[in-house]
Amino acid sequence: MTAQSGALVGGRYRLNEPVGRGGMGRVWRAHDQLLDRDVAIKEVLLSPELDQREREIRVTRTTREARAAARLNHPSVITIHDVVEHDGTPWIVMEYIPGRSLGEEVTRNGPLPWQRAAEIGAKIADALAQAHAAGIVHRDLKPDNVLLSGDRVIVTDFGIARMAEETNQLTSTGMVVGTANYMAPEQLEGTPVGPAADMWSLGATLYAAVEGKPPFEAPTLPAVVTAILRDEPKPSAHAGPLAPLIRRFLDKNPARRPAAREAFTLLRNANAVPHDDTETMTRRGGGTSEKRAAPRRGTRALLLVGVPVVLVAAAIGGYLASSGGSTHTTTLPPTPPPVGDSCLVGTWRDSSYNDSTTWDGTTVFLTGGAGNLDHIFPSGTDEDTYGSYSDPFLGTYEGSTLQVNYNGTRVSTIRAMPRTHQATITTSGWTSGSAPTFTYQGNVSTGTFNQDASSTSTVTYQCSATTLTWLSDGTVNDTETRVSTSP
Question: Do 173 and 314 have their domain in common?
């Protein structure tokens, strides 16, 4: 049962008109008859088709939202006035803020100048920094959840926010909650998310603010999800000096995204970098031109007096942070190492691997090698080491099992192209270790390495903070788990 205009909620709040609606709630402008002021009230929508579990989830999310906003105690936090029960569900009563969303602003008036986007982004980042420090992750940041009211920037809808100490899951098994175009890859994969997921969403929101569209678009939801998980966003044509920072926000590796406090500093100081102080650079192997800030002979500091920064609410929660004046310098993301993608750098351990060998003049395909250590250096040198800690490789020759044990180091050179998730690998051969042993039908013999000659191939890869997967013709050829970020 949904409320109607004129209804009295909580014995004192007279509903005037709805001012916003989402998939799970509606926000009303109402009048507090006791204190004679306008307020905003969020109504939870519970359709008859919902089962009991889903009804409980929506009610719990409303309570969680109020708790999250109330927990962000700060002199500039938007006040949650009340939580009342009406028709068996909780309603959140909060300060009413006139204004429209960033999404509406872009739709009506077109993309924003990068300078204005930087101002908005800095205020969002400052607010997120306060939320993250309190252990709260928003999880659904997007242009429609950012309100603009004069100089204020208000991040709304903490309905699916997660607080660090909470252990109850408010989704069904396998369900991912949020808006796909602005969700981080790890969130789409259904893995636990932290503050870095909000930073991805901030990057996608800023991209949409200056380009008028999200960084990943496709005709269907599955295609959008696939693009976010596998593709790189198209270079931003109107982001100016924000472009390098937006790329950092949209890094698929959460560990490489800047934290909210760093993002606040960089965005607040963005206007200190002249727009024409850029040069066109071509990334190694990328084949596309991008704008990168040119090297500077020094640093330029910008002193700003603190401005109120708002997070949480006219439509759903409340939080406002402010920062005092201080001096900051702008730093830009480092140039990728020669390997082409710093995510690859480190020590990895194989959990499965496909290989081939020659036996009796016939090529035999092998699987195994689990435990093999793969050392990838910033220079692009790749050293695969095998020993007693590695499982043997197994294949089939004329109906019998062929077992191959490697004991040595195979050296290759990797040149990765992270925008296309492709890498060119040139194998130069084996540099150390003993010759492989072959076991076939109970007989053990010593062979020779069949990959001593240099060979080059181009493969597809997927890299995250914990996993590295190599694919050939769309088929997984090798899966590795990270042992260390150091090779």
Answer: yes
Report the domain count for the chain: 3
- Residues in Cβ contact with 246 at an 8 Å cutoff, skipping those fewer than 6 apart: 203, 206, 207, 236, 239
State how far the Cα of 201 lies from the Cα of 298, in Å rounded to an integer: 32
Q: What is the mean pLDDT of the chain?
A: 75
User: Model confidence over 286-299: pLDDT tens digits?
Assistant: 333 333 333 322 32
Residue-level pLDDT at 77: 45
* Domain extent for 455: 342-484
DSSP class of residue 323 equals -
Over residues 280-308, mean pLDDT: 29
Nearest to 121, CA basis, from 216, 210, 214, 228:
210
Token duo for residue 124: 């969002």
38 is catalytic: no
477 assigned to some structural domain: yes
Q: Find all residues with CB under 8 Å of 19, minimum gap 6, and list them.
A: 27, 28, 29, 40, 314, 315
Pair (434, 369) in one structural domain:
yes
Report the C-alpha gap between 179 and 392 in whole angstroms. 45
Place of tokens 């309100």: 147
Q: How far apart are the C-alpha atoms of 154 and 281, rounded to whole Å?
A: 36
- Tokens linked to 186: 């790890």
Domain co-membership, 105 together with 243: yes
C-beta separation of 43 from 2 below 8 A:
yes
> Which H or E run contains 64?
helix 52-71
- Whether the per-residue pLDDT at 249 is higher than 90: the answer is yes
> Strand pairing of 13-21 and 319-322?
unpaired
- Integer Cα distance of 14 and 68 in angstroms: 25
Instruction: Give the pLDDT confidence score for residue 175 in this predicted structure.
Output: 38
Among the listed residues 32, 140, 341, 350, the single catalytic one is: 140
